[in-house]
Design goal:
Elements lengths: L12 E6 L14 H9 L4 E6 L11 E4 L9 H14 L1 E3 L2 H7 L4 H7 L8 E3 L7 H5 L3 E6 L9 E4 L3 H10 L5 E5 L9 E7 L2 E9 L14 E5 L3 H12 L7 E9 L2 E8 L13 H12 L1
Parallel strand pairs: 1-2, 1-3, 3-4
Antiparallel strand pairs: 5-8, 6-7, 6-8, 9-10, 9-12, 10-11, 12-13
Helix pairs in contact: 1-8, 2-3
Length: about 290
């Protein structure tokens, strides 16, 4: 007689936080979560995708993991309040404290002050000044909101082209802004991203912008491929993670070549695309979640 298949043990519910259906090209942001959900289900968890702004009973879940909350920067205050509420009822990753810190790109100044090599960064609290290039000391800068994602309202300002400053100033009026020198290597080397789960390196990526652009996001025409980071890039990424106040469940460390050496451009701790399918990393992410649950 054939033996009955052993039932998979039920280890509880896990919620993957999402957002309302994303418009246009941004819809791709949620697709990589299917592999993670399957990896967790194969380990005995019941997985639900649920909107971050849902009035849910979060205590029903053993853990809540932030994933494709692509709209958080449009409603930052509501989002942070919601994350505090989730964290008050169950385990949240990354933590509400870490999410709040990471939701304003001024965190780069904190990393700089902790001796992490970052792309030179200046923050202006109320829009752009009349001559941001002069204040930064370069003829070409990148200006963007301190609270933003997916290259939202990101501009190149060329001191020799006054219309670029006029456009950026108009779009960023009244906003807390981040200004960095334009990094020429973005056109040749692109960005290097290193993905970590529980502080352990998982995989590396090289992101190249489309011809004539400087933005590497795939929804804007950029291209992403697997790569093996250099030793210098790995050392910088490790130093960056060690400078954080706590170890994140997941992190994507983005860097560029600046003056001959890698420098941090961003550290993504909220809703980064982790390229789980490209790197076959869904199982590593699922294992990291299991480790946190003990």
């Amino acid at each position: 007689m054939a033996r009955a298949a052993r039932a998979m043990p039920h280890l509880g519910r896990i919620a993957l936080l999402t957002a309302p259906p994303a418009p246009g090209p941004l819809a791709a942001l949620g697709r990589e979560e299917q592999g993670l959900a399957e990896a967790l289900a194969s380990r005995g968890f019941a997985v639900e995708r649920i909107r971050w702004d849902a009035q849910a009973d979060w205590s029903r879940y053993r853990v809540v993991v932030i994933r494709d909350t692509w709209d958080y920067h449009f409603r930052r205050s509501d989002f942070l309040t919601a994350m505090d509420r989730v964290a008050g009822e169950t385990a949240l990753f990354n933590s509400a404290v870490q999410v709040r810190w990471n939701s304003d790109k001024g965190y780069l100044l904190d990393l700089r002050d902790r001796s992490v090599r970052v792309v030179p960064t200046t923050v202006f609290d109320d829009g752009l000044p009349p001559d941001p290039c002069g204040l930064v000391g370069t003829d070409c800068i990148v200006a963007k909101p301190a609270v933003g994602a997916s290259a939202f309202k990101t501009f190149v300002v060329d001191r020799g082209k006054p219309e670029t400053l006029a456009l950026a100033s108009a779009e960023l009026t009244g906003m807390r802004c981040l200004v960095q020198p334009f990094v020429p290597s973005i056109h040749t080397r692109g960005e290097t991203s290193l993905v970590y789960f529980n502080g352990v390196y998982s995989h590396g990526l090289r992101k190249q912008p489309a011809a004539g652009d400087f933005r590497v996001q795939e929804e804007l025409g950029g291209r992403t491929v697997r790569t093996e980071p250099s030793q210098e890039e790995r050392v910088l990424a490790r130093a960056t993670l060690e400078a954080l106040s706590e170890r994140p469940l997941y992190a994507r460390v983005d860097m560029v070549q600046w003056e001959g050496h890698p420098a941090i451009l961003e550290v993504e701790l909220i809703e980064p695309v982790l390229y789980l399918a490209l790197a076959q990393a869904a199982n590593r992410f699922a294992e990291a979640i299991c480790e946190r649950l003990g």
